[in-house]
Amino acid sequence: MGKVAQLVMGPAGSGKSTYCRTMLTHSQSIKRSFHLVNLDPAAENFEYEPTVDIRELITLDDVMEELQYGPNGGLIYCMEFLIENLDWFEEELQDYEDDYLVIDCPGQIELYTHFTIMRQIVEMLQRLNYRVCGVYILDSQFIEDTSKFFAGVMSAMSAMLQLEIPHINVMSKMDLVGTTKKQSELDRFFDVDTSLLLEDANKETRSKFHDLNRALVRLIDEYNMVNLLPLNINDEDSVTLILDHIDRAVQYGEDLEPKEPRDEEFEEEGGYGEMD
Ligand SMILES: Nc1nc2c(ncn2[C@@H]2O[C@H](COP(=O)(O)OP(=O)(O)OP(=O)(O)O)[C@@H](O)[C@H]2O)c(=O)[nH]1
User: Fold this and answer.
1) How far is the CA of 173 from the centre of ligand 1 (A)?
2) Is the complex ipTM more than 0.85?
3) How many structural domains compose the chain?
4) What is the CATH number of the domain that holds 255?
5) How far is 157 from 88, CA to CA, in rounded Å?
6) Closest CA to 177 of 212, 208, 141
7) Using a 6 Å cutoff on CB, does residue 17 contact ligand 1?
């Protein structure tokens, strides 16, 4: 079925590690063998032991102590050190026929905006014949108001544009909003009618921002960035749905299984964005 890697990205605290853990638990219940790869040199404990762990190469604590770096500069130093030692990473990724990696990345947003570190990691994985899917995690607090939603979607979009790989967006922590928002209010963010989004944004801002709102909504529309998949870690169906989208994005198992008619339906719904 080939080699697949989910590159799990997103702002600090958005729920990347929780997502990875949920995917690993799910993989056991569906009898797939996923490997956790930790690329966060500041990570603490994992419920599942990572198969590959950057902390065996370098840790943020050591860099901060020995080089007197602060946490953000130290993190970038660690990631650049990883890039200089990609042969270490390659060696750690032992070559099995059907590897499936779930890669937990650090939460420093600058890694996804202007540094080329993540791109170099993707290129290395692609050289090793991995089909890589970007999974960008946004916290459900981003749907508290439209301006936060714009900010979150823009950060997801910059990761998507930088990496040029199949990409999905996941809205995490849905168990926390279920009780405070009505389903109709939530639907607006998952199956977005962009004219409603524009209406909301205009209500929340002064008229001098309305042209900007319109431009942002158009951008979101054009890049198909509104397909946010809700993740409720207590609801197995939401995990199944996300994995289903990733499978299709990387065509997992397509060489074995006939293409299903619902693929067409899915593409009509908008697919994963433009970046395949
Ligand atoms: N209720 C709830 N809490 C969550 C969920 N996902 C994450 N959290 C909590 O949010 C906090 C951050 O979650 P992590 O999974 O560590 O987030 P992260 O993106 O890996 O964080 P960094 O590695 O620091 O960038 C933790 O306290 C989690 O317990 C979720 O789906 N539901």
Assistant:
1) 8
2) yes
3) 1
4) 3.40.50.300
5) 30
6) 141
7) yes
